[in-house]
Amino acid sequence: MTLTSALTDKLSEKRIVVAGGFIGGKWNTVSSRGKVFRVANPATGEVLAQISDLSTHATREAIDAAHAAQPGWAALSAKARADKLKALHRLMVENANDLARLLTLEQGKPFAEAKGEILYGAAYIEWFAEEARRVYGDTIPGHQADKRIMVIKQPVGVVGLITPWNFPNAMLARKLAPALAVGCTVVAKPAAETPLSALAIARLMEWAGFPPGVFNVVPGTDAAAIGQELCANPKVAKISFTGSTNVGKILMRQCADGVKRMSMELGGNAPFIVFEDADLDAAVEGAMVSKFRNAGQTCVCANRIYVHADLYDAFAEKLAAKMEKLRLGNGLEKDVTTGPLINEKAIEKVEALLADASEHGARISAIGDRPEGALFYPTTLVTGATGDMRIAREEIFGPVAPLFRFETTEEVIALANATEFGLAAYFYARDISKVYKVAEALEYGIIGINTGIISTEVAPFGGVKQSGFGREGSKYGIEDYLDIKYLCLSV
Ligand code: NAP
User: Fold this and answer.
1) Most exposed residue of 184, 362, 433, 478, measured as fewest CB within 10 angstroms of its CB?
2) Residue 372 predicted with pLDDT over 80
3) Is 462 within the bounds of a domain?
4) Are residues 307 and 459 in contact, defined by beta-carbon separation less than 8 angstroms?
5) Mean pLDDT, the chain, whole residue set
6) Alpha-carbon distance 126 to 129, whole Å?
7) Ligand 1 pocket test target in 299, 345, 397, 461 with most atoms within 8 Å of CB
């Protein structure tokens, strides 16, 4: 239950994080099992913190606290809830440098990217603070002369939020903001690799004066036990999960008995298509940001880059030239553009995908240096990639860019859609009629057209097929935390 100097020496506000769970407004720094777990910097291996390893018992306590706090929180005016969220937003922005350093230390992404994530997460808090006061109902002409019909919207209740390590701040912010805005209370379970960013949010919420129990965090390594309790406990009305499709399916099965509401932000396998009429330089630029942000560890990363045969060689050459400028290293060092992968398993997965691609005839070119440190993976270009390779079917989650060649629009749309995933897709083209047709034909929840960056709090983020359901951000995002109730009044 300690923070080490490898962490605190880098923070100007050292009280911003506490090494324990946050339950009912109190810091729980002692696990009933007497266990702690370590959080380490993936760039250096240094231990940053030892955190109380909480499990079922603490999860139940957190659910009880959230359940007790929910009616009072929901009874506040929307403006009162919005004011608290605005205070949280202000604190996130004021402490953005410390939050970003914390994020770089536990997750590895470069400081500039980490700060971008903090401000992106804060933007959701601000957006849903604003949306809190716009949860409108409806009146409907009655079906009989004496009937008046009204529709009101109410918070679903206690929500369980389970989030991954790749965006430890923003994935949580995207969920907690709409939940709290409408009057739900929250029990959050962050990824064991990166719990510090979630605990820092809890700290800022404490400082912002949120009532005890409104927001609870249960850090722990026994994800299955914590998840099971959140899914099975009847006091939890809804689960919102961001993570892998496999874990999403486990949670769906566990929630089936209670017919619990769910939002699922799951895995992706994004196609990135460069048509023959694309602006080549813009497409290369878009591929760079879409592919290499967070060292390729995002759910919306370009996973399969399809390039028209006419542009293939020129695109590969220009992309390789840009990739040479990337600099791998410790994200707190100046000019570093690409951090380490999160753990050994991630390295092994990338290596296995590349070995398979090589066996199937692809050309693998590691570009740039690989710094000291076991978790750095060199940025890698794969040419001659084909559909029979694992790399075409699985999320790479590493800084590897596979280029596939195509000839016709029909062919590439079929290839792009030949996956069980449906989160984000990108394409570059200038013919306006093709732009419409391709956008409509791609079976994805999010389409980037002539851009590699699609995330913003004002737009609905989410997938189709096995990438999940529900939307985060925008006016649609708030609906995920509301129940519709219809009132029929006889006059
Ligand atoms: P993961 O293994 O599914 O883990 C995500 C979260 O689920 C973590 O908090 C993890 O805890 C927890 N978890 C693991 N097993 C669990 C269980 N049996 N019951 C309850 N919770 C459990 O995913 P990941 O590999 O960390 O994250 C990467 C995945 O997330 C990728 O597939 C990526 O595409 C997806 N993702 C999707 C979006 C989106 O918006 N669609 C955004 C970001 C990431 P521990 O870490 O403690 O094991």
Assistant:
1) 433
2) no
3) no
4) no
5) 97
6) 5
7) 299
How far is the C-alpha of 51 from the C-alpha of 13, rounded, in Å?
Answer: 19
Pocket of ligand 1 (CB under 6 A): 162-167, 171, 189, 191-193, 223-224, 227, 242-244, 247, 250-251, 265-268, 299, 395, 423, 463, 467-468
Atom of ligand 1 nearest to the CA of 243: 30
Statement to judge: residues 276 and 262 lie in one domain:
no
Q: Identify whether 108 is part of a domain.
A: yes
Model confidence at 34, in pLDDT bands (50, 70, 90)?
Answer: confident
Same-domain check for residues 227 and 310: no
Q: Are residues 133 and 277 in the same domain?
A: no
Question: From ligand 1's centre to the CA of 93, what distance in Å?
Answer: 27
Q: Are residues 357 and 426 in the same domain?
A: yes
Asked whether residue 366 falls in the same domain as residue 296, the answer is yes
Same domain, 235 and 348: no
The CATH code of the domain that includes 34 is: 3.40.605.10
- CA 141 to ligand 1 centroid distance, Å: 45
Q: How would you class 338 by CB atoms within 10 Å of its CB: exposed for 0-12, middle for 13-18, buried for 19 or more?
A: buried
User: Which residues touch 160 (CB under 8 Å, ≥6 apart)?
Assistant: 63, 186, 187, 188, 189, 230, 231, 236, 238, 239, 240
Q: Say yes or no: 225 and 351 in one domain.
A: no
- Looking from the CA of residue 165, the nearest atom of ligand 1 is 26
Position 183 in a domain: yes
- Residues 465, 84: Cα–Cα separation, whole Å: 36
The verdict on residue 229 lying in a domain is yes
Q: Does the pLDDT value for residue 31 go beyond 80?
A: no
d(CA 230, CA 487): 31
Give me the number of domains the chain comprises.
2
Domain CATH for 312 = 3.40.309.10
CB 320 within 8 A of CB 368: no
Contacts of 182 (CB under 8 A, 6+ apart): 132, 135, 153, 155, 478, 481, 482
Q: Whose CA is nearest to atom 13 of ligand 1?
A: 223
The pLDDT score that the predictor gives to residue 32 is: 67
Q: Which pLDDT tens digit goes with each residue over 61-91?
A: 999 999 999 999 999 999 999 999 999 999 9
Alpha carbon of 55 to ligand 1 centroid (Å): 17
Give the domain range for residue 227.
2-266+468-488
Please identify every residue annotated as catalytic: 265, 299
For residue 63, CA distances in Å to 158, 194, 208, 300, 308 come to: 8, 22, 21, 32, 53
> How do beta strands 215-217 and 185-189 pair?
parallel
Residue 374 and residue 233 in one domain: no
Tell me: the pLDDT tens digits for 271-299?
Answer: 999 999 999 999 999 999 999 999 999 99
Give the mutation target among 37, 55, 166 for probing the ligand 1 site: most ligand atoms within 8 A of CB.
166
